[in-house]
Specification:
With 82 residues, this protein is α+β, with helices and mostly antiparallel strands. The chain is 16% helix and 34% strand.
Length: 82
Amino acid sequence: MATVELTAANMSDASVERVWALLSDQASWADWGLWDSVTIDQPGTTDPNGVGLRKTLTFKRTASHEEVIAYDSLTYALSYRL
């Protein structure tokens, strides 16, 4: 299976700390995003929202299963595998 890498960027008037607070609290994504629900299937290994976290995002009848593969709160970096 081929690997596809995507990068997303956006601009916000909010502070980087405020944006990171939302992104790093992955259980809250359905509160502010397009998703109907977020289920944390497995917390991260050293940080509950960090590397190893597995979650299921649902939107209508579609489910996305994601695993956090990189997480750095010092540089505000988050990477995950679908």
